Amino acid sequence: MADTSSVDASLWWDSFTVLFSELENSSLTSDLPPNLAKKLKDNHAWFVDTLTRFKPPNQSSKEALSSKTLKIGSHQLTIQPHLKDKALQISSCLLLDEVQSYIIVERSVKYNNAVAADSMAPEFLHMCLLKCIRWILMHALHNGSVSEDNTMKEEARKLFHDGLENKLILFFNNILSSSYPEQMDADFFTLWAEETLIEDNLVLDILYLAYYDSFCTCGGEMWKKFGSLYEGILAGDYNLGKLAITTETQQLSYHAKVQLLLILIETLNLENVLQMVHDEVPYRKGVSTFSMTDVQDMDALVSTFNAFEMKEAGPLVLAWAVFLYLLLTLVEKDENNELMEIDHISYVRQAIEAGSLRYCLEILECDILKDYDVLSGYRGVLRTFISAFVASYEFKLQPEDSNCTLILDILCKIYRGEESLCIQFWDKESFIDGPIRSLLCNLESEFPFRTLEIVRLLSSLCEGTWPTEYNLLNRSVGISSLFEINSDLEVVEALQAVQVPGVEGFFIPAGTRGRVLRVVGENTALVRWEYSPSGMFVLLLHLAQEMYLNSKDGVVYTLDLLSRLVTFNTSQGRATTGGRIFTFMDNICQSFLATVETLSSALDASEDILNFLACQVELLLQLTRTVFKSLALHVSLLVLKCSSSGLKLFSALKPLPSEANVIMKLLLTLLLSVLQSDSLNAHSGGATNESSVMDLILRCFLTPRTWLPVLQNHLQVPIVMLKLDDKNSASIPIILKFFLTLARVRGGAEMLYCSGFLSSVRALFAESGEDFSRIGSENLGSSCEKFVIPQDIWGLGLAVVTAMVKSLRDNSSGTAIVDSMIQYFFSEKAHLIFNSLNAPDFPSDDHDKKRPQAQRAWISLATLKETEHTLMLMCELAKHWNSWIKAIRNVDRKLREKCIHLLAFISRGSQRLGELSSRNAPLLCPPTVKEDFEICLKPSYVNSRNGWFALSPLGCVPKPKISSFSTALSTYGQATESTDPAPKTGFSDTVALQVYRIAFLLLKFLCLQTECAAKRAEEVGFVDLAHFPELPMPEILHGLQGQAIFITTELCEANKLKVSQETQDVCNLLLQICGIRPVRGFFKGSQIFI
């Protein structure tokens, strides 16, 4: 064995993970530290040969490991036998040079990381190197405008000067054609696919940045390579689509295709061609990377794309048509132009008909690109492309053309949120934005005849502080409207006052002259009048008209524009009259509260309504900031009320829409702004005002967004969970209610799951046994005196589990909970589930039966809630059909039978008041705890004489009164019938409502079973009648429907003048039982109130 061996110095590399971390953490706006700049120069060769410096195994390296000491250039390693053996194993698995394998093993041991060897594999190091190069380009791009000779700029140029472009394209081609390594375990295929696609994206990011900042130029041959690769990807010739097997890989695959499309469009250099058109420079005298021969060869490639078969090719075909048209305008007449033979119009027609504009809009709307994009430069590429398209074909925004709408949508998406692009737009020297500015001028000339389009475009351009958008509207030079004409004159005069479009009562004065813009009918033209009121004034009048006419789109877009004008157009800072702003804020608050009150009776809110509310809140926030130091007290209280009502409503929406999340953040910001203003402090002397503020804050603002982060950082859930071990502890119900609050929020549910709540609740139920449940009874009439602890521990436990399943439904943790809990509740605790669903016997109406029956037992309101919790859990678990059907295969029939029997029991409560007697009380549910007795003292809030609202009072009086009231309530046929009607109370109404909630959940569960079975039948192609779920008899459903109709009709007739919130809730529940979804405004708009 030799003491010392030497190998090629190129086998050594420094830690790229450390280098990448340093680059990532360095500032983009300043030069690099000297030590980091030196590292970049030292590793230049690795960056250029990024993917070829890892060598395959060879005999000389293997023999070198047999020596005691190994020299690798200036580095020296002491060979350790046990590490050598591991290095040889890794070398054979990774097909990696033995010396380089030894370096990996030694570093993994040095950092004491069991998985370090995996993280240092060539694939991982490839990604680190590629990420380092991407950061070098990003630094160069950011820092280039500050210092042209900065280190990053120099290194980036040198990389591509030394041939990085060709090596990256070659590597990209290789990984597109790569297949899964045969020696690798099949279980790692998903990981391999993800790593392969990440490398695809990194390579394309680097190339995109290189072309975007002109570190290298793309000639005709290179463009054809990219085009051929793109065509092959779309045709499925490469592995890009085949590797998209998970959500993550699908996103990576989509991003790679879009990035390659953007590279192809960017490298056409449309910006340079537009510059030549603008400067009227002939093509042969201009600077272009493509020769005429290149263009012909590129056209031959593009002609093979079929946008109808591959929609992703549509934007490229359209961009190529635009490029060809612009070239044709640059070719001088005396030149022999082969381009004249190319039919660019057919390309345009194909791309438009194939939906290329729709695909561009999808790119802009896709969150995937926002997450992966390195500089949001893709908007600039699409901006140049769309601008060139508009310029080439003299595109105009015609309201009847769907493509015009798409163009407008694309432009709004491009500019909104991109301040640099908006600044360029308003720069008159920006020739790229010139065609789009012309579109805006055309829209402005037709204002207010076409308001929506100009409002949307101006709103998207509102970035930066200079009030350009406000000035454009405020200094409007005319008003446009439709006008009847009798000749071909281009100038007309109004002989009488002309109605301004969209503003009732506002007229253009008689005698005003106007210019015909275009003819829109046989005798009708659109005329631009020489009458110039403020466009902002007209827009506000138009807004008021739209709000009155309930024009949702117009109101939302106009409020959005006003909000963004107040937010961004602030450079002039003009003073405003506080009183007018307060009046405006008051009106906005009243409108907001009215909308929230309407939504509170509905089960959800449409996207239009949420967008409308978001605009109102944002406008309110900006107005609050405007009058921050002089905010009136009454306005402060009104704004606080808006915040409380809004937060209370939106925090209750399940699931929480993304728009509602935005509104809640705005409302919290609005709340903080008001609390920090001087208005509350200046008027703190008034006790009433103080009480109002304190009540609003304490009662309404503790939302999960506020308390969850605090609990996540400071609450030790396992310690709290230990208290569940003491089954005699009176704090168990309190803890479970707290856990229920946590479980209703995704983050809280994850806290409980990670802290082992499922194990704790199993232990709790196992130790408590039958103390916390109604085990031993045969129906809902089980004696409530069997509760050792009165609180419904079992029901609360079910509620917590249900909330966790609902919060984590789309999470792997949610799937684990479902699989675990279905098995637990429907195998180990199945008897408790069935007990919760047992229906009481409906009392007999047979007066001839003299033989005494067994005494009927009482139940409690907690028992009914326990049944509700059981059904809610069943509904949530049943949504996971595959897990559900496997776990309850042996009990599913019995479970449905129990549900149908209980539903039948509830359905029999259809007798009206005249049919009832004291001996027919079907349910004995007296108040049992303090809260029940308090509700029992309150009068009825429903006041219905039908259904269970008439049945429940007979059995809901306190126990001593039940005995004196009628012994028929405890035994059949043993006592005489009472003649005194049972009083209706708030408690009896609550019990009746609980019964109807149970009915609704029973129907929901049975519907879920049937829907899943029907879907299964569609999948397999036949209906398995032997296993198809049983359905309730029509008589049962008719009974429930009858109750709902009688009660709803009765309540509507009795509350014609004003409908309370409780009444609306009752009617909504009953309508849902009938399968009718509540409609906003149903009560106010119903004919029954007329």
From TrEMBL:
This is Nucleoporin Nup188 N-terminal domain-containing protein. GO terms for molecular function: structural constituent of nuclear pore. It holds the Pfam family Nup188_N. One of its GO terms (biological process) is protein import into nucleus. GO terms for cellular component: nuclear pore inner ring. Signal peptide: none annotated. It comes from Glycine soja. It comes from the Eukaryota. InterPro entries: Nucleoporin_Nup188_N, Nup188. Residues 36-339 form the Nucleoporin Nup188 N-terminal domain.
